[in-house]
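Retro notes
What went well: the complex prediction finally ran end to end.
Inputs used:
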Amino acid sequence: MSGLSTFTMILEGLLAGAGVTVAVTLASLLLSVSLGFLLAIVRQFGKRRMLHALIDAYCEIMRNIPALTHLFILYFGLASIGFRLSSISAAILGLGLIGGAITCDLFRAGFAALPKGQAEAALAVGFTPYRTIVDILTPQAMRIALPSLGNYAVQLLKDTSIVSAIAAPEIMFYARSMVTSSFQTTLIYSTVAILYLALALPLMRRSACSKPGTRG
Amino acid sequence: MTNFIQPYADYAGEWLPVLLEAMGTTALLSVSAFALSLVFGLLLALCRNTRWRALRRCVALYVAAVRGVPLLAILFLLYFGLPGIGVTFDAFTAAVIGLALAFAAQVAELLRAGLMAIPAGQREAAFAVGFTPYQSFTLIVLPQVVRISVAPLIVTFVSLLKDSSLASLITVDELVLTGRAMATEYFLPLHIYLAVGVCYFLIAWPFSLLSKRLAPPAAR
Amino acid sequence: MNPLLSVTGLTKSYGAVEVLKGIDFDVAAGEKIALIGPSGSGKSTCLRCLNFLEKPSAGAIHLDGERIGVRLGRPMSDRQLAPQRAEMGMVFQLFNLWPHLSVTENVAIAARKVRGLPAKEAQELALDMLAKVHMTHRADASPLELSGGQQQRVAIARALAQKPKLMLFDELTSALDPELVHEVLKVMEELAAEGRTMLIVTHEIAFARDIADRVLFLDGGRIVEQGPARALILSPREPRTQAFLRQIRH
């Protein structure tokens, strides 16, 4: 068998998992961004000390514990006490909850970067505090946070590879099962690398000019 | 609730020593990989600022490639893939190298951002008082880069520490793999993985706090 | 007597853009020269070429008879240039103090690392120089805590500590708030009274008139007119000089 056809075969096998990889990435991205935005708004503009403390604690816990451990708790841990999640929903929930903490920081940095005069000017022309946040501050903060959100999306895409550890049928899962049935280990994992790179490339273009190191 | 806590009381004597040993492995793995990634990252950052265009391109390509490829793929390639072409590492070494290769790219980008944050006038003033390029780098530029980069570098270390958990998937006996073994032995996965989470938290949190303290007020 | 500094045929191009088109002038020891001209006239570039922060495209610069930046017909590296640059003190428009070092350390570090003075002597020298610019009271501060005028005075002290043969001042008041200009100019007058050789690029025409012995008016990369400071500024001969000075006054 020629090298090229082996490669094509491997690629086809891996592509079977690409759909799940993309779906898990998108679903957990959606969950992260909504959760993160909500937390950021409450943490940045809310007045309740108690809520601030809770959000800070949540972010610290998410940020200082590996995603793999979170996934194991959600998938194996909860199952043992009767909450059985499918591997894909555990993956989405786990990555989404962690991502909520990460994007919360990104949004807060966006809000914090706005000059104080922005809010003052909006209040001065008669906006309510609520409309000030929604109409004046949020769009600007979004624009500032966008490059780091792009970086985060790239990171998230890569992080979906670890959900193969809880048997979610994405790219890495297929790679690992192919490895056990063939000896093309080097070729298979190289193809995996190339495939992820290809998926990440469109996202990386967007965030090319932004800073690295968006992870918690 | 008492029911839930009970196993911890029952097994503390058995679990603690095992978890502590695994924490040691995780710490050693992370520190070794981070040290290596600092050296490698500084080299990459300097190459990125060199006047040889081909070298700059290569480094940029490396950084971009590593940014787009999951760490797990790198680890599998090093540990399962390379033996196929005759290069064999033990699992721990493969994990150290894999983490270092991946995080060197991040370190390089951080240091490069630090280098670019130093205004050109700083070097000009150093030249004007008669410093050599080496002196102006070591006395004027590098100390400022270190000051700018130290907080983000600590954040990077925490990321690396967390990602060291992936070494469990190439059979390194660190916290997560130890946790898996214990989970099958005691049939208490929730208790054990929560304990594993606490172990990570205990190592990582002090560094997270430190990075916040060291960050300049504007970024806080 | 040979001039301290001689500049001949100095040109500088960035790609196709010729910023300096052949500059010639001499500076005698103890002489104070002001370079004036509209923005973009090349006066700052000219100053920066003297210590090779910008590499001239052609021309020769001699300081005390020694060719700057060229040895045996070949351009010198920044490493080789270091001792020559140490002979010229430079003060920048944006001060360029080193924020990770204290005020004293900013002034003392070159004395130790370039001239090899022992730490104690370098420290004393730094304090002497800070006294000259009336900054002794902030010796232990960080440059970041100082006002622009104070930073610029420290930058002057840093250049003085080099014991240079020649001082180069690049628009040292342009980045300052108006009320801070005075304290810097006062220091400059005191330095001028000490008989130092000074080359001053400035926008402050009255200051140039009072402090300089000679004024060079640059426009379009050439010296259009030069002469004794008072005479040139009060009664310029060239139409372009007249136009420039008229614009400045109004």
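What we learned: Chain C has a mean pLDDT of 93.
What to try next: split runs per interface for comparison.
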